[in-house]
Specification:
The protein has about 120 residues and is an alpha+beta fold. The chain has a single domain, classed as Arc Repressor Mutant, subunit A (Orthogonal Bundle), CATH 1.10.10. Strand 2 and strand 3 form a beta hairpin. Helix 1 packs antiparallel against helix 4 and helix 2 packs across helix 3. It starts with 6 loop residues before the first helix and ends with a helix. The relative contact order is 0.14.
Length: about 120
């Protein structure tokens, strides 16, 4: 089975924007650092997915950008949620919890019936 068609990859595509906003809400963060933090959480996301998602969030006014000089390296672009971004994150978080509960209920009913 191709990786592009695995359920986990498809699910992550659907929630990547929410995950990125959540990471930013903790502290301003740059793109590569988000990739590393997602990987530590068990979510392998390519840089090629992160930057288009960040551009979408920026275009919608959900993130603020700040350029900071690097320690001996090139300047980095740090992202943090805008006030609207924080409101959207809270809304998405509530929606996600309800959605995950519904899916969990359906899955647990199915697995209990098979036992």
């Amino acid at each position: 089975m191709e990786e592009a068609f695995t359920p986990r990859v498809q699910w992550l595509r659907g929630v990547l924007d929410m995950c990125l906003l959540a990471l930013m809400a903790e502290t301003p963060v740059y793109g590569y650092e988000m990739t590393v933090r997602l990987a530590k959480a068990g979510l392998d996301v390519a840089d090629g997915s992160i930057y288009p998602a960040l551009a979408r969030l920026r275009k919608r006014g959900l993130v603020e950008v700040e350029r900071r000089s690097g320690d001996g390296g090139p300047a980095r672009t740090y992202y943090s949620p805008s006030e609207t971004g924080l409101q959207v994150l809270r809304s998405w978080g509530s929606d996600w919890k309800a959605f995950a509960t519904s899916i969990g209920s359906i899955i647990s009913q199915t697995t209990q019936e098979e036992s």
